[in-house]
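Is this the right way to post structure tokens for a design question? Let me know if I should format differently. Anyway, here goes:
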């Protein structure tokens, strides 16, 4: 390589920005390819590559201002993504275990770190405390392994991620205090001013940031604007916390926590945030870290090697012992201990922040708070802890997967989940697709089918081109979150027939369809196409009207009729709503009959105990007007209905369209018709004949009577 640079007449180190960026991209591109064959975590390769090309390696690149800038962005990004991907509901469910583990995984390294640094390395007490705080903090380097195996909802994972917030906050607080001491900032007002500033920043981030973000996401749906807006909040949070006296990475972590509910895991914005961070900012940061390391000091004298060995052993043992104590206290399984140890052992972001700050502070002229030996020993510790973390997390994840495969073999549903999404209106494509994405199985990457139907009698090329563009847009929305959307364009007798045939051909489990627009006064609320679809299939049908972006919905209010538990599709719609609540991070309120409530509660407690849910008795199903006081503009109102002739069907369902149109016109809502017995497209019954003209006539007469008597009731109420 050196000969190549000489042949190109390029002086070393390279200072040309074009060549610097090119070489960094080459490292980011080829390092994972090589490391995959060697079974080495990518983070190790990036740091090693930085060592090779840096000043203390072959001196190919100079660590200029670009590495300072991108390194800062990458450091913030690691902490921001950690907060953004945390499961807040699982954190609340296991908060006592999380607090205990967080305190143990902070206190144990602190005690062992102070003792080892003071007695074995002969450091001062202040240096020993700062060094111990570096052992205490950890970074979720191995979290992508958990996500790849689909185990992010495990109790041990939630405890580990929650413990990260506690230990990082405490470690950074110690760093801020020690740094303030040597900068002459600590006096009698230091603690009061610092507490006031920190509390003010916390209030701004926790209370104001989410409200600004919710307003912005509702008003602007441009992907680039949303991405830039989120990054601006991240660095604003970091800057505010730095001005308060703490490190900015804690602010980035807090911004990730408060935006957690507004950026679902399966959303284009989340995909873009992860993509840009993992593709550019984080690797740039890791390469920059490697460039400041001088491994030659490990072999020039015994002190640097001794420091590296002590740091690695103490950091690793203290994290394992913390996981061991937590396991014994709460009677957890060995695999859970291994998972907690694996996730909490890796040292990276906060550790590097502490060592870089300590390495820049002079205790006395020429004497650093953390010497170069500690700096190089820290990198050796990072290398080994990241390797150990990746290996142990991978081992624990495989054990969990094997246990799940055998324990759930009898309880796994036999039905294959496939969601059919008929699209016709360009204005509804995005919210229909996003609604399907937040209720789909996260592990399945190809269970969405987008359909566009053209009548046989339409031969217009513009209609075909229009339908093709709609399908391409639906596929693009799915591709933005790495979900393959199968697109189907077909000619059929009519739209209803096209949906039914596609439903049967692809064996779809349910249909998500938008509420049609009324074209004339005689048109029904659901529309002829939807009504015919209901009569021709027994599969679950979800009719959606959404007035705002799905990720900005704040609550889901569900009206459940009595005897809904006896319908075959009872657990399916609960499953879909629970997924929505989990992915959107919003509260679910169930208004149901007292006899039905135990069945809903039992299923949720067994399968989704971490989501936020409340139950209310709702015996007066006949009048949905009673719920208008609890359904706000930023709520999703879900009505569980039923087809005529089935056990949970009520005569009041005939008034449902009128009530939704009158009382909930300005709300987002979803009407669910669950699975029913007899999945035969041509099935006929005495309770629901194929010819339904008479039913429509009776419904029209009933609607007229309701309007007449409804006015009378209003007058009586006014008189009262």
């Amino acid at each position: 390589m050196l000969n190549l640079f000489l042949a190109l007449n390029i002086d070393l180190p390279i200072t040309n920005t074009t060549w610097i960026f090119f070489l960094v991209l080459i490292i980011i591109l080829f390092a994972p390819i090589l490391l995959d064959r060697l079974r080495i975590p990518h983070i190790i390769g990036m740091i090693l590559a930085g060592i090779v090309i840096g000043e203390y390696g072959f001196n190919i690149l100079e660590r200029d201002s670009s590495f300072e800038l991108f390194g800062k962005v990458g450091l913030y990004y690691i902490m921001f993504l950690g907060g953004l991907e945390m499961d807040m509901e699982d954190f609340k469910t296991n908060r006592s275990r999380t607090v205990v583990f967080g305190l143990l995984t902070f206190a144990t390294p602190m005690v062992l770190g102070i003792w080892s640094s003071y007695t074995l390395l002969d450091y001062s007490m202040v240096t020993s405390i700062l060094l111990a705080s570096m052992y205490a903090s950890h970074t979720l380097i191995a979290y992508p392994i958990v996500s790849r195996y689909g185990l992010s909802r495990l109790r041990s994972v939630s405890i580990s991620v929650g413990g990260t917030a506690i230990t990082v906050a405490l470690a950074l607080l110690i760093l801020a205090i020690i740094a303030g001491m040597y900068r002459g900032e600590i006096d009698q007002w230091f603690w009061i001013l610092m507490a006031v500033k920190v509390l003010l920043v916390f209030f701004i981030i926790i209370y104001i940031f989410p409200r600004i973000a919710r307003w912005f996401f509702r008003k602007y749906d441009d992907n680039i604007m949303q991405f830039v807006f989120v990054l601006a909040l991240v660095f604003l949070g970091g800057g505010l916390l730095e001005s308060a006296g703490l490190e900015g990475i804690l602010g980035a972590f807090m911004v990730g926590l408060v935006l957690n509910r507004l950026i679902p895991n399966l959303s284009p914005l989340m995909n873009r945030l992860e993509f840009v961070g993992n593709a550019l900012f984080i690797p740039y940061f890791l390469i920059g870290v490697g460039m400041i390391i001088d491994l030659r000091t490990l072999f020039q004298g015994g002190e640097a090697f001794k420091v590296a060995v002590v740091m690695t052993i103490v950091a690793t043992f203290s994290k394992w012992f913390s996981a061991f104590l937590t396991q014994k206290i709460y009677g957890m399984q060995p695999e859970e201990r291994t998972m907690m140890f694996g996730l909490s052992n890796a040292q990276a972001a906060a550790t590097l922040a502490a060592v870089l700050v300590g390495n820049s502070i002079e205790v006395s002229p020429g004497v650093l708070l953390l010497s170069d030996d500690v700096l190089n020993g820290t990198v050796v510790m990072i290398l080994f802890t990241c390797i150990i973390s990746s290996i142990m997390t991978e081992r624990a994840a495989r054990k969990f997967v094997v246990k799940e495969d055998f324990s759930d073999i009898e309880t796994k549903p036999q039905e294959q989940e496939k969601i059919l999404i008929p699209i016709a209106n360009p204005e509804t494509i995005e919210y229909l697709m996003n609604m399907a994405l937040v209720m789909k199985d996260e592990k399945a990457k190809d269970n969405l089918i987008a359909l566009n139907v053209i009548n046989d009698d339409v031969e217009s090329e513009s209609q075909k081109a229009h339908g093709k563009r709609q399908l391409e847009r639906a596929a693009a929305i799915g591709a933005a979150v790495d979900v393959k959307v199968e697109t189907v364009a077909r000619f059929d007798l009519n739209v209803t027939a096209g949906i039914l045939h596609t439903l049967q051909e692809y064996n779809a489990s349910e249909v998500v369809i938008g509420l049609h627009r009324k074209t004339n006064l005689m048109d029904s609320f659901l529309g002829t196409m939807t009504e015919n679809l209901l009569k021709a299939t027994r599969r679950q049908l979800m009719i959606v009207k959404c007035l705002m972006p799905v990720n900005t919905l704040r609550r889901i209010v569900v009206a459940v009729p009595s005897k809904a538990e006896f319908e075959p599709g009872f657990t399916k719609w609960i499953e879909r709503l629970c997924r929505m609540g989990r992915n959107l991070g919003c509260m679910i309120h169930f208004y149901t009959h007292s006899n039905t409530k135990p069945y809903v509660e039992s299923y949720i407690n067994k399968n989704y105990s971490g989501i936020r849910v409340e139950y209310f008795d709702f015996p007066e199903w006949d009048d949905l007007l009673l719920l208008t006081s609890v359904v706000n503009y930023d709520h999703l109102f879900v009505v569980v209905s039923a087809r005529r002739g089935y056990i949970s069907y009520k005569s009041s369902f005939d008034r449902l369209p009128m009530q939704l149109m009158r009382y909930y016109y300005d709300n987002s809502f979803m009407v669910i018709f669950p699975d029913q017995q007899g999945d035969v497209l041509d099935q006929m019954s005495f309770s629901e004949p194929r010819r339904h003209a008479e039913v429509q006539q009776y419904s029209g007469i009933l609607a007229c009577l309701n309007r007449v008597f409804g006015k009378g009731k209003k007058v009586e109420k006014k008189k009262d």
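Format looks fine. Someone answered above. Worth noting: The two ends are 92 Å apart (CA to CA). The first helix runs from residue 2 to 7.
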